[in-house]
């Protein structure tokens, strides 16, 4: 079974002889192959740039609301809580010293109207938390509620003080 | 690669920033010779009204956007609805959606939000002594029309960065909206105005018959004179130089400032009213408002007031002899160092409480008041008595 490999091709008559321009053909094929490979790499780069740009874009535009609560929203909520506590306390004080049902009813109506206004302004604020005019309107509303309650108590206090003095002198 | 990315970012940035853009909203004129009245309806609008020099009503409404992107401008313009129709002799004009409360409005664009640096809770400390103010003082106040500058607007605001640090706001991040909305009205025609969340400035004296319903609106007038005027104002503010004729209702109006009142009926509730001078035939009905009457004109003849839970601060008339009479019950009167208390009436009957001046005087101030506080003063009134 042993064979000399040098004799192996000697008997092969059908062995093809390459054409005369085979070198040029081979080089042309090589060039076209190179070109197609290069095109594929460029597309890959464009896709990569687009992915990077989209990722950066998403991180800038969409991550923010998830990660951060607006500082202004947080501030206003804290102020609102503080005011509402004080308003409720002043309302209790007012009801305790007022002995006029009509007066209490009118103040209730006034405060309810202010609260409805507040809810409406609050909707505007939530859609545009950086609008300082709306923030001022919210704070004004809370201040007005507190102020009218303080003022009417002061008014009643003046009237009651004088009446007490009168009763004593009589 | 790097260059491509930079270019992409540049395109993104430049597309977001626009230059000042002027957009016309409404520009039309209407002949009013055959019209009975004008019906103007404003919601969220700043508008200046003046008299036209012909028989036409002229509407000229433009907006100027600075630092707005084209998309933002388009979105804003889509929100604004403006229309005008003529039906049965009435020109009806409606506009809404601009949400501009002043001639210049600012809004901020930040990545991580803004913070208010100051005290939300602080109240302005009330002065304990108020001095008499002249009619001229009120005329000057009512004529001033300065809004907040950008510097003032940003004064107490800070931008917050990613780490929560505060820094000054870059003015390049402030979007500026300038409203130029002028309506010129013919001098004779009746005008009906319905306004909500708006700011109306009347630049000229108006003798037209005026019917106004305003909610949460700033109103500023020069002189309004017509015996058939009816103005109903809820919330907001009201300033005028001279009101003559008609009836006025102010409910929950924080600031009513008028230089002079004459021949008017005023109905008020939960409001703060300051009047420079009261002229003839003025009547006021009130519940729980605060009044400042700084003076009375010569020969004011009669001033009448009926009120409950009101606080009345009245400077004695300087220009004529007078008599002041107060009727009612459960009321405290302060006059210099003199305090007079009238106790509550069980039957809730009004009785004469105080008389200042000679009864024979033809200029009379009559105040019917229950559960009230009345302070009188020559040059000043102390509030902490």
Describe this entry's structure for a reader.
The complex is a heterodimer of chains A (170) and B (385). Chain A is mainly α and 170 residues long. Chain A folds into 2 domains: 22-63; 69-169, no CATH class. Chain A is built from 6 helices and no strands. Chain A has helices at residues 5-8, 22-61, 63-67, 71-97, 101-127, 132-169. Chain A is rod-shaped. Chain A starts with a helix and ends with a helix. Mean pLDDT of chain A is 77; it is low at 166-170. Chain B has 385 residues and is mainly beta. In chain B, the strands form 4 sheets. Chain B has a 16-stranded mixed β-sheet that branches. A 13-stranded mixed β-sheet of chain B has the order 5-6-2-13-15-18-20-22-24-26-32-28-31. Chain B has a 3-stranded antiparallel β-sheet with strand order 8-10-11, with no helix packed on it. In chain B, strand 29 and strand 30 (338-342) form a beta hairpin. The longest helix of chain B has 15 residues, at 2-16. Chain B is globular. Mean pLDDT of chain B is 89; it is low at 10-18. The interface between A and B is large, with 44 and 43 residues.
Radius of gyration of chain B: 26 Å
Unreliable residue runs of chain B: 10-18
Low-confidence stretches of chain A: 166-170
Mean pLDDT of chain A: 77
The secondary structure category of chain B is mainly beta
Reading the helices and strands of chain A in chain order gives: HHHHHH
**What is the typical, i.e. mean, pLDDT of chain B?**
89
| Major beta-sheet overview of chain A | none
So how many helices of chain A? 6
Strand content of chain A: under 5%
What amount of the residues of chain B lies in strands? over 45%
Apparent shape of chain A: rod-shaped
Distance between the termini of chain A: 148 Å
Write down the overall geometry of chain B.
globular
Q: What would you report as the Rg of chain A, rounded to the nearest angstrom?
A: 44 Å
Helix-strand makeup class of chain A? mainly alpha
Assembly type: heterodimer
Largest interface: pair, residues per side = A-B, 44 and 43 residues
Kindly state the number of beta strands of chain A.
0
